[in-house]
Amino acid sequence: MARLDTETLDMLLSTLKEYAARELTPQVLLKLDHEDVFPEKVLKDLYDPQQIGIHLLFVPEESGGLGGSAWDIYRVCEVMSGIDLGIATGVLATCLGADPILVGATPEQKAHWMGRLADEGLLMAYGATEPQAGSDLAALRTTAVPVVEDGKTTAYRITGRKQWISNGGVADLYTILANAPGGPSWFVVEKGLPGFSHGKPEDKHGIRASNTAALFLEDVTVPADRLVGGVEGKGLAQAQAVFGYTRLMVAAFGLGAGWAALERAIRYAQTRIQGGAPLSQKQGYTHKLLVPTAVRLEAARAYIEWTAERIDGGEPDLATEGAVAKYAATEAGNRTAEDAIQALGGYGYTREYLVEKIKRDVRITTIYEGTSEIMEWTIARDRWQHHLKTKGTWYLDWAARLGGSAETGAPLAAQALRSLAALFERCRLDRLTRNQHILFRLGELTAWAETAAIFSERAASKPSTVLPLGAPVLAAMARVYAREALVRVASDGLKWATAAGQTDAALAQSLALDRAFTAQAGRIEDEDFLARELARAFPAG
Ligand SMILES: Cc1cc2nc3c(=O)[nH]c(=O)nc-3n(C[C@H](O)[C@H](O)[C@H](O)COP(=O)(O)OP(=O)(O)OC[C@H]3O[C@@H](n4cnc5c(N)ncnc54)[C@H](O)[C@@H]3O)c2cc1C
Fold first, then answer.
1. Portion of the chain with pLDDT greater than 90, in percent
2. Which end of the chain is more exposed for a tag (fewer CB within 10 A), N or C?
3. Dist CA 476 CA 291 (whole Å)
């Protein structure tokens, strides 16, 4: 998919930022959060083509939209979540709601619904989750019973309950996953139909500016042409098909919210004097609370950008890459916000400085669109299959062709991939993945190794230009990250394989444990440099 031209994207981003500076001041955001209010007017403004027309980004050009690429959506999602993750979720819900149509609808259905979304700025909602069917969507109980007249299906009667639906109480249009006789299928359901109602807004930990509600469907009758794609039983495949893309959006949320917290902490540290000097000059503070998460966020960004480019290049089946991006970015974003509270001390623990709100908001990103544990599982299962199919050479080949340079930590990232290959093989020989925990830990270590590989390669060849950090800073970050990934794969890998009863006395050598530790030499110096550069990039005031 073609990217928007730079001018159009920049204009969209700056219009969003100007709108936020004008209408969404910290006071307004804190009030929305405190009073638990869904800001209907803000969503209307965002959808108003005279102002921003944000929904047009998700609508194909042929239906009157902008036809934004995965790259464009990553950039917009990062900026929106840096403003307010609750409001960003309200927008994401429309994109999610439209996805089953974009992926699975007939050309007529697509033209109709996407055209209406573009013209009317409809708020949409995506109704998949049910009280007993969360991570395990296949357990869904909502049914769609065909209404047959003269031997022809003319309508469906939908009955069931949906849980935790973003925009659930405020949407104009819903896509609902229900079991038809042919299997799980998506249906387009308009608000206000007889038998269709919603619960009161959930009283949530964070993203309180978003509306989340249960949906109740009792014999809600929709014409047969509301079955997405016109064929029953394609629902789970359609949900799966959009994951690469939607998980990338939530990854961008983790990134944007994480940086929103981190920027505040970096600036604060320069003015807060303790022990006779600014905190920004205290190594025990910067190297614990600022530098590590800055590095993790930028590693996740590299992986997000790499995945977005591949999606836009037309590559299918990038659900696992989407999972790695989401897992790395949202875990980093969550950790960043947690550390930002600590970095601001008592002030961080109060509402006024916003990091406390960001922490509550970003927490959702490791839960919705697939929890972190489900991401670990997804990543591990897929890469395990690659390991088996290639007889153990999948990561060895990747390590051999890895670009980058010593300057960007590439040899260490390549070693992390080789150590991962050794770990997978040991798990295979000793049948360790019969322990679910081991499989999930493989997912975690895989995400570290892959992000390290991509970060070290891109820091050398395509350093991101989104933040004012510069190539030498990104190179130092990539070195620090590669060291961390390697030591995690080698030492955690050894720990977990041993815990599960591995039988190789020389596994530490196969995992290059010695090298993982000697590779840490120079890390403090890199972190000193990064602490200075972060303060330079985000000065106080
Ligand atoms: C604010 C909010 C907005 C949301 N918006 C939407 C929306 O718009 N549309 C929609 O359809 N859904 C939405 N959801 C639902 C969300 O996607 C689910 O909450 C999520 O997928 C997890 O499902 P669950 O809550 O049932 O938890 P569960 O699946 O019960 O998981 C509970 C815990 O168990 C772990 N777990 C689950 N399965 C396994 C397993 N097999 N092995 C090991 N561990 C496991 C999970 O990782 C998690 O830690 C939203 C949720 C929230 C809170």
1. 96
2. C
3. 11
H helices of 84-131, in order, are 85-104, 107-120
Cα 476 to chain centroid, rounded: 25
Query: Alpha-carbon distance 263 to 141, whole Å?
Result: 45
Q: Which of 229, 190, 221, 233 is nearest to 109 (CA)?
A: 229
| DSSP H or E run through 33 | helix 26-35
pTM value is 0.97
Compute the distance between CA of residue 64 and CA of residue 118 in angstroms, rounded to an integer: 6
pLDDT tens sequence across 110-167: 999 999 999 999 999 999 999 999 999 999 999 999 999 999 999 999 999 999 999 9
Closest residue by CA, ligand 1 atom 47:
373
| Residue of 342, 186, 166 whose CA lies nearest to 264 | 342
Q: Which atom of ligand 1 is nearest to the CA of 93?
A: 8
In testing the pocket of ligand 1, which one of 164, 242, 376, 442 has its CB within 8 Å of the most ligand atoms? 164
Phi, psi of 145 (to 5 degrees): -95, 125
Query: Tell me, what amino acid is at 335?
Result: R
Place of tokens 């000059």: 281
Low-confidence winner among 51-60, 189-198, 400-409 (lowest mean pLDDT): 51-60
Q: How many residues does the chain have?
A: 541
458's enclosing H/E stretch is helix 436-461
Q: Would the CB of 209 count as within 6 Å of ligand 1? A: no
Kindly list the distances between the CA atom of residue 540 and the CA atoms of 256, 263, 265, 329, 465, in Å, as whole numbers in the listed order: 19, 10, 10, 26, 21
Question: Using a 6 Å cutoff on CB, does residue 175 contact ligand 1?
Answer: no
Is 154 in a helix, a strand, or coil? strand
CA-CA distance, 531 to 291, in Å (whole number)? 6
C-beta 477 within 6 A of ligand 1: no
Among the listed residues 78, 202, 369, 457, the single catalytic one is 369
- Burial of 475 per CB tally in 10 Å (0-12, 13-18, 19+): buried
Q: Looking at ligand 1, which residue's alpha carbon is closest to its atom 50?
A: 164
Which neighbouring-strand residues pair with 185? 178
Give the SS3 label for residue 357. helix
Q: Is the CB of 243 under 6 A from ligand 1?
A: no
Three-class DSSP labels, 251-294: HHHHHHHHHHHHHHHHHHHHHCEECCEEHHHCHHHHHHHHHHHH
Q: How far apart, in whole angstroms, are the C-alpha atoms of residue 187 and residue 58?
A: 19
Which helix (DSSP H) or strand (DSSP E) does residue 389 occupy?
helix 372-389
DSSP β-ladder status, 277-278 and 273-274: antiparallel
Q: Name the residue type at position 254.
A: G
- CA 370 to ligand 1 centroid distance, Å: 6
Is 369 one of the annotated active-site residues of the chain?
yes
